Automatic annotation (TrEMBL):
<keyword id="KW-0227">DNA damage</keyword>
<keyword id="KW-0378">Hydrolase</keyword>
<keyword id="KW-0234">DNA repair</keyword>
<comment type="similarity">
    <text>Belongs to the uracil-DNA glycosylase (UDG) superfamily. Type 4 (UDGa) family.</text>
</comment>
<feature type="domain" description="Uracil-DNA glycosylase-like">
    <location>
        <begin position="161"/>
        <end position="307"/>
    </location>
</feature>
<dbReference type="InterPro" id="IPR005122">
    <property type="entry name" value="Uracil-DNA_glycosylase-like"/>
</dbReference>
<protein>
    <recommendedName>
        <fullName>Type-4 uracil-DNA glycosylase</fullName>
        <ecNumber>3.2.2.27</ecNumber>
    </recommendedName>
</protein>
<feature type="compositionally biased region" description="Low complexity">
    <location>
        <begin position="60"/>
        <end position="83"/>
    </location>
</feature>
<keyword id="KW-0411">Iron-sulfur</keyword>
<keyword id="KW-0479">Metal-binding</keyword>
<keyword id="KW-0408">Iron</keyword>
<keyword id="KW-0004">4Fe-4S</keyword>
<dbReference type="InterPro" id="IPR005273">
    <property type="entry name" value="Ura-DNA_glyco_family4"/>
</dbReference>
<dbReference type="Pfam" id="PF03167">
    <property type="entry name" value="UDG"/>
</dbReference>
<feature type="region of interest" description="Disordered">
    <location>
        <begin position="46"/>
        <end position="138"/>
    </location>
</feature>
<dbReference type="GO" id="GO:0006281">
    <property type="term" value="P:DNA repair"/>
</dbReference>
<dbReference type="GO" id="GO:0004844">
    <property type="term" value="F:uracil DNA N-glycosylase activity"/>
</dbReference>
Length: 316
């Protein structure tokens, strides 16, 4: 930027670049993930318009909306070689993160801890708490009578719908019931559940302040992972729960929950450390408490994940 020289077409490039940088920051805040590469001639035209004290009412050549975006995407005009502009590389896919850039720098077009593409509101208006509770109760009765998954229906003792506050700020979203949960009909009540309760309390919440639920509502035999068809069978239920609850945050506990909710094949390692989006809810991915019991060294990373949420929520 310091190489930019004043010219008749761009009498105040510093002011122009400040405006462009401000627009780029705004686009970043609202979740813009990718912007086209600036074309130098369009940038010059736009810069001249910005700098003019009385812009012409009818420009000789209208500047398109796309050109405006291109200018906003160019706060660093000196970084113009193909190697310095990852947005030009056709192989760069939306799920690639800033830390994957070969030059080790984060793209100015991405928020480092936010993957909010596809952000959209939950459909309809939120329900008052009594109605939410009633709708959740109705849904729970449907789940209890559900026979979609032939094998799980034969193995289950009780369905495990979920429990907690009907107007929660945070939903903890696990994989599926284990033995203790299958017997009790409650989520996360075994050893992993005790650890989850400690994690919740470490966040300064009470367990009854949050909502806890699973991807599938029936216990898979021998604690195997739910099959993809079983997850799809149960999708209607867990998505309906989230739509009723509309939490500010959903914490996905482990790979199965994260991949099911975010409809992705990425690993927990790739999904951790940033926010994703499920309608209005920010989605955070961390390790399953059962994994943390087997791998205590991962507890610090899980706490880092929760702290990311707490900082974002203004709670620390
Ligand atoms: S796991 Fe879900 S979809 Fe499958 S039988 Fe149980 S409640 Fe029904």
């Amino acid at each position: 930027m310091s190489d930019t020289k004043p010219s008749p077409e761009s009498p105040d490039p510093a002011a122009t670049l400040r405006q462009a940088a401000g627009l780029a920051e705004h686009l970043g805040r609202i979740g813009a993930q990718w912007l086209p590469v600036a074309q130098p001639d369009q940038v010059q035209k736009l810069a001249a318009q910005f700098a003019s004290p009385s812009p012409p009412e009818t420009p000789a050549e209208p500047v398109s909306k796309a050109a405006s975006s291109q200018a906003a995407a160019s706060p660093r005009p000196a970084a113009s070689s193909p190697e310095q502009r990852p947005e030009q590389r056709p192989e760069q896919r939306p799920e690639q993160r800033p830390e994957q850039r070969p030059d080790g720098k984060a793209s100015a077009h991405r928020l480092p801890e936010d993957d909010s593409s596809g952000r959209q509101p939950y459909p309809g208006d939120p329900l008052p708490e009594p109605q939410r509770a009633q709708r959740l109760s109705d849904l729970s009765e449907r789940v209890a009578a559900c026979t979609r998954c032939e094998q799980l229906v034969q193995c289950r003792t009780k369905t495990v719908f979920g429990e907690g506050h009907v107007n929660p700020r945070v939903v903890f979203f696990g994989e599926g019931p284990g033995r203790e949960e299958d017997l009790s009909g409650r989520p996360f009540v075994g050893r992993a559940g005790q650890l989850l309760t400690k994690m919740i309390e470490a966040c300064k919440f009470d367990r009854q302040d949050v909502y806890i639920m699973n991807t599938v509502k029936c216990r898979p035999p021998n604690n195997r992972n739910p099959e993809p068809t079983e997850i799809e069978n149960c999708r209607e239920y867990f998505e309906a729960q989230l739509e009723l609850l509309r939490p500010e945050y959903v914490v996905c506990l482990g790979l199965v929950a994260a991949q099911a909710l975010l409809r992705t094949k990425l690993s927990v390692g790739r999904l951790r450390g940033k926010f994703h989006q499920h309608f209005d809810s920010k989605v955070l991915v961390t390790y399953h408490p059962a994994y943390l019991l087997r791998t205590p060294a991962a507890k610090k990373a899980a706490w880092d994940d929760l702290q990311l949420m707490l900082r974002d929520a203004g709670l620390m």
